Amino acid sequence: QVEMVESGGGLAQAGNSLRLSCTASGRTYNTYAMAWFRQAPGKEREFVASINWNGGITKLSDSVKGRFALSREKGTNTVFLQMNTLKSEDTAVYYCAAGRNTRVDRSDEVHEYEYWGQGTQVTVSS
To answer: What's the rounded Cα separation, in Å, for the pair 109 and 112?
Structure first.
């Protein structure tokens, strides 16, 4: 069993920063591809950022490119989403995901990930 633990959500003013953390623990025999998705009320879950198993490849959605950065602690299943210059439209529940066999060219797709966290709320006030 793999457990996903997220932290770092909360309330921020527009223009400020937040940092989310996520760790996959338990029966993790390898380093996994990991990602963040988000879901705002009344909207579908959308891709935010992904990082491959060794941290060599990251992908960001167009909506956060230039403002967010995703990194991972080397050799572990712990990732950090640094969110800068936050906007009100970044308000959502953010979900961390991990995948054993995630394809790099499809790392922005929900079904590429087997393990999901409970989600952490990010609220940006304007």
So the answer is: 6
For residues 112 and 40, is the Cβ–Cβ distance under 8 A? no
Helix H or strand E encompassing 120: strand 120-125
d(CA 102, CA 108): 10
Which run of H or of E encompasses 8?
none
Give the number of other CB atoms < 10 A from CB of residue 126: 10
- Who's near 62: CB < 8 A, 6+ residues apart? none
Instruction: Categorize the per-residue pLDDT at 103 as very low, low, confident or very high, splitting at 50, 70 and 90.
Output: very high
Q: Is the pLDDT of residue 75 over 80?
A: yes
